[in-house]
């Protein structure tokens, strides 16, 4: 028995005719609205509506009915082509390799054409590694390390702390603290 037979309609019924037939039968067989209705009698009606109410499901169902209705012979079955599964999708290895080569080329071009910029002027903020000159009043002021300088700042310390014996304390020219200076030998 087909879903069309369950709803009592023909295979050429429109969607509105299918809906009307389903509603009529659902009212007649629903356990809450009919004394003779039951869940068992309503189940095939609901299944028929589920399949025929959706246009995509109905097309698939109609195709399966057409296959079943067509007489098949042993010769036809053997000559029916089997549908091979689609080939697995290929990962774009060539594209990936090409992009990797381009990336490596850009990096190598940058390595060979890079010229470091000359150091900028001192910013007058002393920190470890800053080159300094000691002024007449004993303050340390930053200078460019390529120029003549008296020493290199090893660390900054608090006002109440002392530098290790091998370093000499000097006040920052801006008065921001005390620096321990290592003099070039």
Kindly list the characteristics that best describe this protein.
185 residues; alpha+beta; five-stranded mixed barrel; 6 helices; 5 strands; 41% helix; elongated
Can you describe what's shown?
By secondary structure, this protein is α+β, with helices and mostly antiparallel strands. Helix content is 41%, strand content 15%. It contains six helices and five strands, in the order H-H-H-H-H-H-E-E-E-E-E. It has helices spanning 3-7, 15-29, 39-52, 55-69, 74-79, 93-113; strands at 131-134, 139-143, 151-157, 168-172, 178-183. The chain has a five-stranded mixed barrel with strand order 1-2-4-5-3. A hairpin with a 4-residue loop joins strand 1 (131-134) and strand 2 (139-143). Helix 2 (15-29) runs antiparallel to helix 3. The longest helix has 21 residues, at 93-113. The N and C termini lie far apart (107 Å).
As a whole number of angstroms, the C-alpha radius of gyration is 45 Å
**Major pleated sheet:** 5 strands, mixed, barrel
How many beta-strand runs? 5
Listing every helix as H and every strand as E from the N terminus to the C terminus, the arrangement reads HHHHHHEEEEE
The helicity comes to 40-55%
Shape: elongated
**Unreliable residue runs:** none
Strand order of the largest sheet: 1-2-4-5-3
Which class of secondary structure composition applies to the elements? alpha+beta
Strand content: 5-15%
How many DSSP helices? 6
Oligomer: single chain
Mean pLDDT, to the nearest integer, reads: 84
Beginning-to-end CA distance, first to last residue: 107 Å
